[in-house]
Amino acid sequence: MQGWVKVHRSMMDNQIIMKSPDHLAVWMFLLLHATHKEQPATFKGKEITLKPGQLITGRKMIAEKINISESKVHRVLALFEAERLIEQQTSNKNRLIYLSAWDKQQSAEQQEQQVNSKLNNKTGKSERQSEHKQECIIENEIKNEIIICPEQAPDRSGILLPLVDKSFYDVPLSLIEQWKMAYPSVNIEQELQKMIAWLNANPTRKRTRKGIERFVVSWLNRAQDSGGRYVQQSVKSSARPTGFTNFEQRDYDFIELEKQLLDAQQLDGS
User: Are 101 and 139 members of one domain?
Assistant: First the structure.
């Protein structure tokens, strides 16, 4: 057999499974040999379809695999059945066993989601965004399991710019650092938050994933120009302020900046 199974932490609290090393060994045999998807089999001379969580085995096979007596296997299986951990049907040659908690603790669909999520999911911080709801689906939906949720990609900031296709662009941390060096007078994180607000307020102006970085750079260029003229908050000027201006404490004109962006839309494109 190939593949893997999940081991539920609640097993440690089950006095029947943990009664002895033999009990635990039998349980792990059943867990590891149960099928995770439907497949054809023969039982009592008839063709059947094994469901997830079922297996066909026998006392002799289990005894040989885990090195205990067949009589011990028989007693353990009878106890498991009495405690409703398993359901079993016997024949002259073997027995059909079903693990009662399989649907709750072991589903093939969830196993496939774990593998696919690592390959396909674009992780981010916010579970509020639809693109990122799958990031920790196992941790959120199935508690008390020995499962490691995929961590957030290390180069993602969690700052999500809305796109025209209703997905989000998680701004890479490496790009933020580059922009900080290229635009030293601009608060990059603050400008990104302003972009989010502006794009949400102007949904028809949202960009594609391909064009969003050009949009950001265009915005930051204008912010840098405006900051160079208006903003020097960290440096106090020795110039005497006039009666109608106070450029040392004045933020740049965001309304004017927005107007410039709208005027430049046709040049920027999407």
Answer: no
Say if residues 215 and 164 touch (Cβ distance below 8 Å): no
Assign 143 a pLDDT band (cuts: 50, 70, 90). very low
Phi first, then psi: give them for residue 41, nearest 5 degrees.
Answer: -155, 170
Q: In which domain, by residue range, is 264 found? A: 154-268
Residue 163 covered by a domain: yes
Q: What is the pTM of this model?
A: 0.42
What pLDDT score does 224 carry?
87
- Rounded Cα gap, residues 168 and 61, in angstroms: 53
For residues 143 and 147, what is the distance between their CA atoms, to the nearest angstrom?
A: 9
**Cα separation, 133 vs 125, whole angstroms:** 10
210 within some domain: yes
**Is residue 238 over pLDDT 60?**
no
Give the closest residue to 26 by CA, choosing from 48, 52, 57: 57
- 2 inside domain: no
- Those residues whose C-beta lies under 8 Å from the C-beta of residue 47, and which sit 6 or more positions away, are 40, 41
Distance CA 208, CA 161 (A): 10
